[in-house]
Structures are given as structure tokens and as C-alpha cells.
Amino acid sequence: MSVRYVDSCRLPTRLGEFAMHGFTEIESDQEHIILTYGDITPDQPLLIRLHSECLTGDSLFSMRCDCGYQLETAMANIVEAGQGALLYLRQEGRGIGLINKIRAYHLQDDGADTVEANEQLGFAADLRQFNMCKPMLEHFGVSQVKLMTNNPKKVQALKDVGIDVVEQVAIQVGRNEHNDGYLNTKAEKMGHMMLPGVLSDLG
């Protein structure tokens, strides 16, 4: 999968000032971005997160998932570290899209878990691809990373395309009464590194 760098700009946020870099996939014209913070030093492992778009969690403050909490925590961790990158990938609903995500949520309202809902709609539990991450990281000369994720499949996906993951950093935040079952399902059926059944203080 090939991507094309488009342009960059400043992105001041309440957590700190990032630089935002735009990329497009050449074959599909799908758009992705990287937020970088600090000076990127290619000879050192970089703290990063691969964050797939979640409109409901990232922008609408949904408590049905942990995505928005993870996004904010990852950005804060990068600022605290003094450098890092967040790859924001346009793969809504683990790749099924926003409208199908609404359909999946309806099925969950009726008792299905997140995996069963996707399967009832005719999808796999996770349709995301991460091949685009290598050329996006290579644009900055990055080949070694410390990856913030609970998902071992993201670690393996980067390794499969030649990115050296020197450390997996857990990012377990945002558990609440609305997503407790969802997070437990991700642990039990999708292999995520979670702490089942322990509700955390949202602050």
C-alpha cells in the first residue's frame, strides 16, 4: 500500500502544540494524518499510537467505547515524553464505517456483543488494515517505535511490515458502566490486554 504526503500545519491543542501532517492512500484516495510532537529523532524508538477514527468516542464523547479516552491519554503521554506521533487512521467502526457502526450498536442494544454484532451484519470482528503506517512513519525516518496499545494485533501488524516494535505500552483508560461489557469482550474474544470487570474512576 502506497501513500502520498500532502502537506503539514500547526495544530495547537489544549494538551500542547502538535504538527499535523496529511497523507492519502494512492489507490483509494483515503485520507490519514499523523500528529507529531517535538523533534523526531529517527535513531531512537519513537512513542506512537495507531488510532483508528471513532467519531462517536473521539468527537461526540460517547461512553460506549474507550476510544476518546485513549486518544486524549495518548496525546498527553506524547507531550509528557517530549516527542512522539499519533497516526489517526480513517477506519471508522473497526473498518465497517459509521452507518454500519450504528447498525452494530443497535444490535448491541438488543443484546449482541461487539463481535457478534459485526458478524450478524456480515463483517469480520475487525476489518482494519495497518499497511499504510509504514510509509507514513518512514516519511519521518522512523523504523523503531514504542507502541501505545492494548491490541497485540497492532503490534504484529507493524512487525509484519518491517517496523520494529521495541515496547508495547498499555493504555487502559475510560472503563465505565456503559462500556464494561464491550471491553471485556475485546479481552475475551479479540485478545486485547484489558483488566476485565474492574470499573475505573473517569475523573
Describe this protein's structure.
The chain is α/β, with parallel strands linked by helices and 203 residues long. The chain has a domain at 3-91 and 128-175: Rossmann fold, CATH 3.40.50. Helices cover 32% and strands 26% of the residues. The chain has helices at residues 55-59, 67-81, 98-109, 114-120, 133-138, 152-160, 180-190, and strands at 3-13, 16-25, 31-37, 46-52, 84-89, 144-148, 164-169. It starts with a strand and ends in a 13-residue tail after the last helix.
**Strand coverage percent:** 25-35%
Compute the number of helices: 7
**Relevant CATH superfamily of the domain at 3-91 and 128-175:** GTP cyclohydrolase II
Structural class: alpha/beta
Strand runs, count? 7
What CATH architecture label of the domain at 3-91 and 128-175 applies? 3-Layer(aba) Sandwich
Helix content: 25-40%
CATH first level of the domain at 3-91 and 128-175? Alpha Beta
- What's the overall average pLDDT, rounded? 91
Strand order of the largest sheet: 1-2-3-5-4-6-7
